[in-house]
UniProtKB/TrEMBL annotation:
Pfam families documented for this protein: 2-Hacid_dh, 2-Hacid_dh_C
Domain called D-isomer specific 2-hydroxyacid dehydrogenase catalytic: residue spans: 18-325
Keywords annotated in UniProt: NAD, Oxidoreductase
Similarity comment text for this entry: Belongs to the D-isomer specific 2-hydroxyacid dehydrogenase family.
Species per Swiss-Prot/TrEMBL record: Lachnellula suecica
Name of the protein this chain belongs to: Putative 2-hydroxyacid dehydrogenase UNK4.10
Residue stretches making up the D-isomer specific 2-hydroxyacid dehydrogenase NAD-binding domain: 121-294
């Protein structure tokens, strides 16, 4: 009996051997083309007609474009699983996949610590308005022309919007710095997961946090969740941290709130129109900017790749995914094919 096939789109960096080992349960195929049109042509030609599952590297979006409502129906009919490398999967149309009977996994758990670490790095940098002194010393200007005092995290209220795996790691780190943690999530966490974090409404979170850290997924309902109205409700001198997705914030409104002094500083790893960054942010010496490097560590990149491969293996050998996207919880079936 011939083995089912799996397809890799994009490349693997840290798990080449583990990928080759997948040969024990599947025939390995790799898409090496360089455009969406070419990929669709391969699909149409039937090059992937026996492919059951595919590994989609995050970078592959730059080759095939998003897996949207146009592309998904053109995938091979044999395809049942898309294993995506990345915690965010807004470049995959989940509804389109569901209606084709295709199940999707992402890599939530693997990214938690690294993303929370970068959130804290940005928070400390924003509290200290670190950009000026940090760059002045390299320009042989010591602390720069107008050194300013920063703020301590201790006793400040850390508000976390979205208390998933990343949010909870941010909470742990915040507590270590003596912060009081409160959060909003669409549903309240169990008491074990919640710990001593206080559950508040969205509005209370916005009104009472000294530092606000965004950790919600980007969905229709969360685009621009932090805009003009929310900035108006915030405390004077609030600090905003975003390591989730740029489109959660209305960047124009953020720039205005920074310029007016309402927002003391912001720490950003993600942007509305990545890799384009708003001029008003680039020109503001009080903000701390990073070019989306939240998960850019050797350990985390390898763990993400391993988790995609684990999903791939489970998909092919057990007909189930390990970290299926939450929108597709209804696909979960008791696995009898162990
Ligand atoms: C993943 O790809 C999207 C574009 O599809 C991009 O916006 C994002 O920055 C990428 N993520 C990382 C961690 O590079
Ligand atoms: C946060 O809320 C969402 C939506 O209700 C829910 O799916 C998720 O499980 C909640 N997070 C936790 C850790 O309970
Ligand atoms: C409110 C919300 O969308 N929270 C999300 C924060 O991110 C985690 C992943 O780390 C999701 O599980 C939560 O649903």
């Amino acid at each position: 009996m011939s083995k089912p096939a799996v397809l890799l789109i994009g490349s693997l960096t840290h798990t080449k051997k583990e990928w080759e080992d997948c040969e024990s349960f599947a025939t390995l195929k790799v898409y090496t083309g360089s455009s969406r049109a070419e990929f669709l042509a391969e699909c149409e030609k039937g090059s992937y007609k026996d492919v059951v599952a595919l590994y989609r590297s995050n970078e592959s979006t730059s080759i095939t474009g998003p897996f949207d409502a146009e592309l998904v129906p053109k995938l091979p009919p044999s395809l049942k699983y898309i294993c995506h490398n990345g915690a965010g999967y807004d470049n995959i149309d989940i509804d389109a996949c569901s209606s084709q009977g295709i199940q999707v996994s992402s890599t939530p758990v693997a990214v938690n610590s690294a993303t929370a670490d970068i959130a804290l790095f940005l928070m400390l940098g924003a509290l200290r308005r670190i950009h000026m002194p940090y760059s002045s010393i390299r320009e042989s200007k010591w602390r720069g022309p107008s050194p300013q005092l920063g703020h301590d995290p201790q006793n400040k209220v850390l508000g976390i919007l979205g208390m998933g795996g990343i949010g909870r790691e941010v909470a742990i780190r915040g507590r270590a710095f003596g912060m009081k943690v409160q959060y909003y999530n669409r549903s309240r966490l169990s008491s074990e997961l919640e710990g001593d974090a206080k559950y508040v409404t969205f509005e209370e979170l916005i009104r009472t946090s000294d530092v606000l850290s965004l950790n919600c997924s980007l969905r229709k309902e969360t685009v621009g969740i932090i805009g003009k109205k929310e900035f108006e409700m915030m405390k004077e001198g609030v600090i905003l941290i975003n390591t989730a997705r740029g489109k959660l914030i209305d960047e124009g409104a953020l720039v205005a709130a920074l310029d007016s002094g309402k927002v003391f500083s912001a720490g950003l790893d993600v942007y509305e129109e990545e890799p384009k960054v708003h001029e008003g942010l680039l020109n503001n010496p009080n903000v701390v900017l990073l070019p989306h490097i939240g998960t850019a560590t050797v350990e985390t990149q390898r763990n993400m790749e391993l988790l995609v491969l684990e999903n791939l293996e489970n998909a092919v050998t057990k007909g189930d995914l390990v970290t299926r996207v939450p929108e597709q919880a209804h696909f979960r079936q008791p696995s009898t094919r162990l």
